[in-house]
């Protein structure tokens, strides 16, 4: 007797799975913010993210890279994509070698700022994205944030 | 490159390009305020149809520009925001854009007209009794 | 348990028939189509069980038992899809004990000690299958619920252009965070696409308006404002109004009207106001 019913869940497709680095943008001048924004939008579009999600991502990249430029004089923005059988994600990493964020919980509350608009930027990032982690110490700060959608 | 500001009657019109650096936004603010101060216009319409990203920095500069224009006796309207940009701004927090808005350039000019009228008329006219 | 395997092999047709009889007793209202399908599933399960007992590896770890477990899970999923309750599904699987017990009682050729051992082994296997079945049942139900949830969410909320510059969006059903986001997205896109200056958001069909829904409404109004459009919320019930005031929700920036009719009147009034400010006065 053979099984008449197909399996309920699709098998993971190894061809379309895995993590990939989509772009690395060095942040040295204001124009680089625009390039990083564009790179994130392209990666999100390639994964079939909606216009609204692309806009959320590009806005987040704008906030984070500006922080790196303003407080650390520059940094690096990496755009990664990850595909699994059920989900697709874009992960943004912004790393700099600046003085670090002295009080992360406080920087995540609205209004706090060591110079103008840092607090607001990070709060916005947390609201627009699905996850946000911050590793920081004097000399190295890494902000990693991801957006995940169903396939 | 500076973003050009056009003058149509008593209204200043400017259309932001898709990719705008922080410096260009600041330059625009300076240029617009100078024109208002020179008495060349009563209102400013900033068209952002092309902008696909408005982050907290740009939102703040735009809102501040509107306040400065008001302090100098003019009115400012932001026109043509994309739906995805509006959605993102609202999700980022309350009151990111603290200025008047209009659907498109035409609506922006009309709104400036209404605001100037309710304020008591154009600055270059002697009020008729 | 080779002996048990042999016994099952000989009388599997009887076992299946007895099992189906139990099914009809346990679930009186079972549909003929479901019965056919379940017959297939239970038949396969008996085949696999027989195969397992014939292999002599009764520690429950071998590949033969794995395939029994898998078939039990599939059977249980079929039960869940055909609307059997967890109770009915578990009863059905456990009834195999009694059926096979009767079968062993009729078996006179074997020694009493052997019969006892067979019975214990069978009981252990069926108990384990009942657990597997239960887990699979819950999983299938959850999958069904999730799928239904998605289907509800995907039910397009239409944005109807009812007049030049006016669109109407009637909301029906419960508004949770995910749906609220979706509604906001659709509304803004519709405003932009139809070049509408006013959106009437009718919430007559929303059963519960609490502070969370109100927050989403406020956000939608603010987003529409950024676009240069206005939102009129209509159909707020007396109950909702009482709740919102008691919760102290700030709706000062929101235009609200009791009925769709008065909302439409307000829309026309606002449009009239907008067209008053003409371009010519400034040029």
Characterization of the model:
- The complex is a heterotrimer of chains A (151), B (129) and C (283).
- In chain A, 36% of the residues lie in helices and 31% in strands.
- Chain A has 151 residues and is of the alpha+beta class.
- Chain A has one domain: Heat Shock Protein 90 (2-Layer Sandwich), CATH 3.30.565.10.
- Chain A is globular and about 40 Å long.
- By secondary structure, chain B is of the alpha/beta class.
- In chain B, 44% of the residues lie in helices and 17% in strands.
- Chain B has a five-stranded mixed β-sheet, with helices on both faces.
- Chain B has one domain: 2-Layer Sandwich (Transcription Regulator spoIIAA), CATH 3.30.750.24.
- In chain B, strand 1 and strand 2 form a beta hairpin.
- Chain C has two domains: 152 residues, Orthogonal Bundle (Globin-like), CATH 1.10.490; 118 residues, STAS domain (Transcription Regulator spoIIAA, 2-Layer Sandwich), CATH 3.30.750.24.
- Chain C contains nine helices and five strands; from the N terminus they run αααααββαβαβαβα.
- Chain C has a five-stranded mixed β-sheet, sandwiched between helices.
- In chain C, helix 7 links the parallel strand 3 and strand 4.
- In chain C, helix 4 packs antiparallel against helix 5.
- In chain C, 33% of the residues are buried.
- Chains in contact: A-B, A-C, B-C.
- Chains B and C meet through helix 3 and helix 4 of B and helix 6 and helix 7 of C.
């Amino acid at each position: 007797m053979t099984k008449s019913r197909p399996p309920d869940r699709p098998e993971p497709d190894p061809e379309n799975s895995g993590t990939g680095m989509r772009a690395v943008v060095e942040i040295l001048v204001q124009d680089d913010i625009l390039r990083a924004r564009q790179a994130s939008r392209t990666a999100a579009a390639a994964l079939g993210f909606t216009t609204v999600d692309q806009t959320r991502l590009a806005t987040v990249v704008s906030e984070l890279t500006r922080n790196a430029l303003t407080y650390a004089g520059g940094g690096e923005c990496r755009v990664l994509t990850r595909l699994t059988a059920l989900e697709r994600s874009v992960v943004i990493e912004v790393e700099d070698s600046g003085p670090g964020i002295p009080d992360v919980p406080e920087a995540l509350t609205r209004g706090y700022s060591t110079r103008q608009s840092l607090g607001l930027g990070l709060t916005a990032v947390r609201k627009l994205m699905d996850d946000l982690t911050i590793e920081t110490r004097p000399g190295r700060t890494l902000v990693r944030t991801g957006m995940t959608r169903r396939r | 490159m500076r973003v050009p500001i056009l003058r149509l009657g008593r209204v200043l019109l400017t259309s932001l390009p898709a990719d705008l650096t922080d410096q260009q936004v600041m330059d625009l603010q300076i240029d617009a305020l100078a024109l208002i101060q020179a008495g060349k216009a009563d209102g400013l319409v900033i068209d952002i149809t092309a902008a696909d990203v408005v982050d907290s920095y740009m939102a703040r500069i735009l809102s501040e520009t509107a306040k400065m224009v008001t302090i100098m006796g003019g009115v400012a309207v932001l026109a043509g925001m994309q739906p995805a940009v509006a959605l993102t701004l609202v999700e980022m927090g309350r009151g990111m854009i603290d200025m008047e808005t209009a659907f498109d350039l035409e609506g922006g000019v009309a709104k400036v007209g209404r605001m100037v009228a309710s304020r008591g008329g154009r600055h270059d006219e002697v009020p008729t009794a | 348990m080779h002996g048990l395997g042999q016994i099952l092999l000989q009388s599997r047709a009887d076992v299946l028939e007895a099992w189906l009889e139990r099914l009809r007793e346990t679930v009186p209202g079972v549909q003929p189509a479901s019965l056919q399908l379940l017959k297939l599933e239970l038949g396969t399960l008996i085949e696999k069980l027989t195969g397992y007992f014939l292999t002599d590896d009764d520690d429950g770890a071998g590949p033969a038992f794995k395939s029994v477990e898998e078939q039990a899970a599939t059977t249980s999923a079929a039960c869940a899809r055909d609307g059997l309750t967890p109770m009915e599904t578990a009863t059905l699987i456990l009834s195999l004990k009694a059926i096979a017990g009767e079968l062993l009682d009729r078996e006179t050729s074997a020694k009493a000690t052997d019969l006892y051992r067979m019975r214990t082994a069978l009981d252990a296997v069926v108990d384990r299958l009942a657990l597997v079945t239960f887990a699979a049942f819950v999983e299938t139900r959850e999958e069904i619920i999730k799928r239904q949830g998605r289907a509800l969410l995907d039910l397009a909320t239409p944005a109807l252009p009812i007049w030049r510059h006016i669109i109407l969006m009637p909301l029906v059903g419960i508004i949770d965070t995910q749906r609220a986001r979706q509604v906001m997205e659709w509304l803004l896109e519709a405003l932009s696409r139809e070049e509408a200056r006013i959106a009437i958001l009718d919430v007559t069909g929303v059963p519960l308006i609490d502070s969370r829904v109100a927050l989403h409404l406020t956000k939608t109004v603010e987003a529409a404002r950024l676009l240069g459009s206005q939102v009129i919320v209509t159909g707020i019930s007396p109950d909702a109004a009482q709740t919102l005031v008691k919760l102290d929700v700030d709706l000062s920036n929101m235009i609200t009207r009791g009925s769709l009719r008065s909302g439409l009147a307000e829309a026309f009034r606002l449009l009239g106001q907008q067209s008053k400010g003409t371009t010519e006065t400034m040029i």
